[in-house]
Design brief:
Layout lengths: L1 E8 L2 E8 L4 E9 L6 E7 L2 E7 L4 H12 L13 E6 L10 E3 L2 H9 L8 H14 L5 E4 L10 H4 L5 H7 L8 H15 L5 E6 L5 E6 L2 E5 L22 H9 L3 H10 L2 H6 L5 H9 L3 H25 L4 E5 H6 L1 H8 L11 H5 L5 E2 L8 E4 L4 H16 L1
Parallel strand pairs: 1-6, 6-8, 9-12, 12-14
Antiparallel strand pairs: 1-2, 2-3, 3-4, 4-5, 7-8, 9-10, 10-11, 13-14
Length: 396
């Protein structure tokens, strides 16, 4: 069964093609600057890589180019488009329409109604899915909603202290996101340690960030709430923020609520604090040369992670493992050091030498640490591929 997994941005399309159940990755590729005069496309099939500059007007055209590459008579890995069983998407938010489901008009309508909850994610996904439904009606489209993994979170960890009818009638609750990544980490660490009865704190740190408490493979709490703008500071998104500051800012700046929400969604986070960059690599370099606000942004970020880890130790009753993943989690020795500093009292001890030499899946805790600390590479795409294959297989 061949599953194409699509990762969409407003002007980008990245993909991986898997053969299941062997989970062999047959190809990967991507197209940037969709809708612009010149789009950059590449495909990697085995040892063959091809790059091209094309004019690609929309995501439907991008997928058509992708399928042409995959079925190319000289280097393609498919004989025909009919071999593609489904296209899977790591979709973000559709309210009660969570879990794994076929892309239908009902799902797309729900995603579009909730643009303001996930403004960076829902618009490009909904638009592209509509285009693909029209252009490729013969290929099932499967949405694996990021909120699905968090359906096991107890009500005490999901409910805001708001008028309860808002929760019941309008679905205002801590939905949680990054479900594919946390699901993968929970499963992979169980394989590594040979146990399913684990208490795991998964730290997905990248452009977007979240912490997840996982017990026996099931989510118990997630730092992201109603929207992906909440929780930890992100590269340019605010994280946790007191809404009662908004009237103060409206009066002081003369900006509208919409303008302030735009600032919180795009000019805040690490970028907002540092005034320099949203990239941790840039901030680490600047902090090392004395840039005070770059250093402050890293400290705020690390401290927020520490606070959630502390909270989730109480949710889980301790932890067997803390896992760092995502672009920052896998690559930033500085952030891992700051997060784990002075946690010996909780049985969490980082080995400084191991933390410097990361290669693949790496254990970085000291030998006498009660809680193991790992760096693992996440694989959200294979999770989506598995879920899409299971859903389409059940329909067949």
């Amino acid at each position: 069964m061949k599953i194409l997994v699509a990762n969409l941005g407003s002007t980008s399309f990245k993909y991986r093609l898997y053969d299941l159940p062997s989970e062999t990755q047959l190809a990967r590729g991507g197209i940037d600057r969709i809708g612009q005069p010149q789009s950059a496309a590449f495909v990697q099939i085995g040892s063959h890589r091809q790059d091209a500059t094309l004019s690609i007007p929309d995501h439907a055209a991008a997928v058509r180019i992708c399928l042409e590459q995959l079925t190319h008579p000289e280097f393609g890995c498919l004989k025909s488009v009919s071999e593609v069983t489904a296209i899977g998407f790591k979709a973000v938010f559709a309210g009660k329409l969570s879990g794994v489901r076929l892309v239908t008009p009902e799902l797309l309508d729900a995603m579009e109604r909730l643009f303001d909850v996930a403004p960076a994610h829902n618009p490009p996904y909904a638009k592209a899915m509509r285009q693909l439904n029209t252009a490729f009606p013969e290929i099932p489209l499967v949405a694996a909603l990021e909120t699905g993994f968090h359906e096991t979170i107890p009500a005490a960890n999901r409910t805001y202290a708001i008028p309860y009818e808002w929760t019941e009638q309008y679905d205002v609750k801590r939905w949680g996101y990054h479900g594919a990544s946390h699901r993968f980490i929970g499963g992979r660490i169980a394989e590594i340690l040979g146990r399913k009865d684990l208490k795991v704190i998964s730290c997905h740190l990248g452009g977007s960030n979240s912490i997840c408490a996982i017990k026996n493979g099931e989510s118990q709490a997630n730092s992201l709430g109603m929207s992906p703008q909440s929780g930890l500071p992100h590269n340019n998104r605010v994280g946790d923020f007191d809404p009662f500051a908004l009237p103060v800012l409206m009066r002081a700046t003369g900006k509208s609520l919409a303008e302030l929400l735009e600032d919180l969604a795009n000019k805040s986070g690490l970028l907002g604090i540092s005034g320099l960059s949203s990239d941790v690599r840039d901030l680490e370099q600047a902090a090392a040369t004395g840039h005070a606000r770059a250093a402050l942004s890293l400290d705020v970020f690390a401290q927020s992670i520490r606070q959630y880890i502390g909270a989730y130790l109480t949710v889980l009753g301790g932890a067997d493992a803390i896992v760092f993943t995502g672009g920052i989690g896998e690559n930033s020795q500085v952030i891992r050091t700051k997060v784990c500093e002075n946690l010996d009292w909780a049985g969490i001890k980082l080995d400084a030498q191991k933390n410097q030499k990361i290669s693949g899946e790496t254990l970085i805790s000291s030998d006498d640490s009660r809680t193991q600390i790992w760096v693992l590479q996440t694989n959200e795409e294979i999770v989506v591929a598995r879920q899409a294959a299971e859903l389409v297989g059940s329909k067949q």
